[in-house]
Amino acid sequence: MLFLLLALVFGCNALTLYVLLKTKSDKLFDKVIRYVVWISLFHSAYAFLSRYYFEELPFIDRAAPFGLLYGPMLYFLSFSNHEKRLGRSNVIKHGSPFLVATIGYVIFLISPEWRRNYGLYYFEVLYSGVVVSMVGYVLYVFLNHKKAISDNRIRKLINSGATWLLLIASLLASIIVSKILRKEDIGSLLPGMIIYGAMLFVSFLIFKYSINNLLVKAGVDEESEESVPISAPRQYQKSALTVEILREYEQKLNTIMETEQVFLDTELSLESLSRKVKIPKHHLTQLFNTKINQTFYQYINMYRINHSCKLLLEEPETNLEEIAFKSGFNSKVTFNRYFKNQMGCTPSEYR
């Protein structure tokens, strides 16, 4: 059963990595996601091979310090969606506990004498360190929640990952109590099932996120929104929305666009905009179709293009791809297409 679980984790990560590489997103958050998937892919492969070929030596898998990577990965994911770069020193600082533990792990594997004399202390220090790391990073992320995670999809992904980290930390804490204090061994099957089950669940969430990004890049979401007719009065004939209410909605929408610049969120959707502006989604759709006479994407991208025009003049040294991301677009191709449709020339020609 454990081997099947590890195989599923590996397969899900491999498929997710393929989708992420296919998407070719340059967003920092998506780059960090790729690193997380690579780490999870290697971890699951390492666990599978060590348990399969060295079944009589379960400590090879149980003593591996991979757990020290997932807290920092949660941190990097949480804060990458609003920063331009993480910085090498920042990565080294948060990755140093894993590097130190890896050195100890290598010594643990190659020295039977060291393993006999200090093995118990090694597990105590390693598992305690993993518990402190996971709980500490989860608390830090939650304390900075609003600042770090503005997008709803990313928030759900981070929340799920944090929840599973707390579950794993609780499991490891119980192992420390059982093995160190009570001198009991709860075995490797149950912890393995919980840990790798959590990895499979989070891997599936990342897979869903990557598939959605691929669909957005391919324009599926835009086509579904664009396919709604601009003028569709017949379907709204029985609507309770009056002209005054629609006018109030439009003012409210324009205000939040101009003051909060929500259009700069590259993951903005009709649903998330509905929550931000506190207008029911079906009312917002009716507003676009009957009052504004634009689809959701036409309206949002109008603001994005206007913002990009300002950036093109104010930041002459910034390349066009970065201008696109700063303006809320997911890709340079989409940016160029909407810019030419609205302005009648390419961004480089406008500059």
Automatic annotation (TrEMBL):
Name of a matching Pfam family: HTH_18
Protein name, UniProt field: AraC family transcriptional regulator
Transmembrane intervals: 32-54, 95-114, 120-143, 164-182, 188-207
Keyword list, A-Z: DNA-binding, Membrane, Transcription, Transcription regulation, Transmembrane, Transmembrane helix
Gene Ontology molecular function: any one: sequence-specific DNA binding
InterPro entries recorded: Homeodomain-like_sf (IPR009057), HTH_AraC (IPR018060), HTH_AraC-typ_CS (IPR018062), Tscrpt_reg_AraC-type_HTH (IPR020449)
Domain HTH araC/xylS-type: 254-351
